[in-house]
Specification:
This protein has about 375 residues and is α+β, with helices and mostly antiparallel strands. Strands 1, 2, 3, 4, 5, 6, 7, 8, 9 and 10 form a 10-stranded mixed β-sheet that branches. A 7-stranded antiparallel β-sheet has the order 15-14-13-12-11-17-16. The radius of gyration is 19 Å and the shape is globular.
């Protein structure tokens, strides 16, 4: 591994990995892949190969070549068909195609298992990961990345499955077409795959990525674990680390969930308890939670974060794990500023998901 000589460098160890999985599960707004499964996969590689170095975007050398890697597919399938080393194979496929070797890796989203996906090829190759990502949360579609919103090319990209197949998409007319083609390939691969995108420069990462998101996920997980150990309220600990607000709390009464076109889609119904008794919340999701209505009124909508956690322990509850009877608290967090610009809202605002409403920012 290259010695970057930074005093700010930290490493993803097994302990840090557990915290990242908790924090990224919260930030993942219900999607991004099951964080526990992602943690198990990354832990195995870290045990075999050693910890992974983390760099801030500012620490990247000017000649850095940063490859974004991530998973693509339906989370409901991802808990039944566990990925192996597809992200490593996708990385090698894009390196072979472009003729450029990665010097660092970066996550496509700081959500669920996708937050730790880069750690697997990073541990296998000795590369560092960047403390940033392309969403600051999780979104269901490939084009919904701040990288692409602000001008980084989305192609070429490589998609790989667990069977040994890899496909390179050389070019598309826009990022939406990259999503359509990659999604179709993923469906043929069994609705679960991994991808890697052509290398970015250090300047592109600094300009377009959501910074410090891996550290935020780790800090959230640390706060939840410490609150549990000390017998404190983990929900308060979450909000102390990441300013947001409680949107609702209650019992899951209804889950309408289906896998369609490579996504987990559906609605979630919650009956209020305690201070929310007598009220109801409905959440619509497409892998990730998109809109939350309390008694029929929208209280939070994309790109702001709608996050479900267990009321007692503060553990993240992803959309594929929702079931009748769970006691959950719904938290809302403001979206990163890169998403609330006109350019960001055009790609991942309410109308991008078919909701004919204007975005109203969550106030905390």
């Amino acid at each position: 591994m290259r010695d970057y000589g930074s005093e700010n460098l930290w490493e993803v160890t097994e302990s840090a990995l557990e915290s990242i999985a908790i924090g990224a599960g919260i930030l993942g707004t219900g999607g991004g892949g099951n964080p526990y499964i992602g943690q198990l996969r990354a832990r195995q590689v870290i045990r075999e190969k050693g910890p992974v170095a983390v760099l801030s975007p500012e620490e990247l050398p000017d000649d850095a070549r940063v490859v974004c890697v991530g998973g693509i597919g339906a989370p409901t399938v991802g808990i039944e068909k566990v990925r192996d080393y597809q992200s490593y194979h996708a990385l090698r496929a894009i390196e072979d195609y472009t003729g450029e070797k990665a010097t660092a890796l970066i996550s496509n989203e700081i959500g669920g298992s996708n937050s730790v996906e880069p750690l697997i090829p990073a541990a296998m190759t000795g590369l560092p990961v960047v403390d940033a990502d392309g969403m600051g949360r999780a979104f269901p579609e490939f084009q919904m990345k701040t990288f692409f919103v602000y001008g980084v090319p989305c192609c070429p990209m490589a998609v790989a499955d667990e069977k040994g197949n890899s496909v390179v998409i050389r070019d598309t007319i826009n990022p939406q077409w990259a999503e359509r083609l990659a999604r179709s390939i993923t469906v043929q691969m069994g609705c679960v795959a991994c991808y890697a995108v052509a290398p970015m420069s250090a300047q592109q990462v600094r300009r377009t990525a959501v910074p410090n998101s891996l550290t935020l996920a780790r800090n959230l997980g640390d706060a939840v674990k410490q609150a549990r150990q000390e017998g404190r309220d983990p929900l308060s600990a979450i909000l102390e680390v990441c300013p947001g607000k409680e949107l609702f709390g209650g019992k899951v009464m209804d889950v309408d969930r289906r896998t369609a076109a490579g996504f987990a889609r559906g609605t979630l119904g919650i009956d209020g308890l305690d201070s929310w008794a007598g009220q109801k919340m409905e959440i619509e999701f497409q892998n990730e939670n998109l809109v939350a209505r309390r008694d029929g009124e929208i209280v939070c909508i994309v790109p702001d974060l709608i996050c479900a956690v267990g009321t007692d322990l503060g553990e993240p509850v992803t959309t594929e794990m929702m079931r009748y009877g769970l006691r959950v608290t719904i938290l809302g967090f403001p979206a990163p500023a890169l998403w609330t610009s006109d350019e960001g809202l055009a790609v991942a605002g309410p109308r991008a998901f078919g909701y004919d409403v204007d975005y109203v920012a969550l106030t905390v």
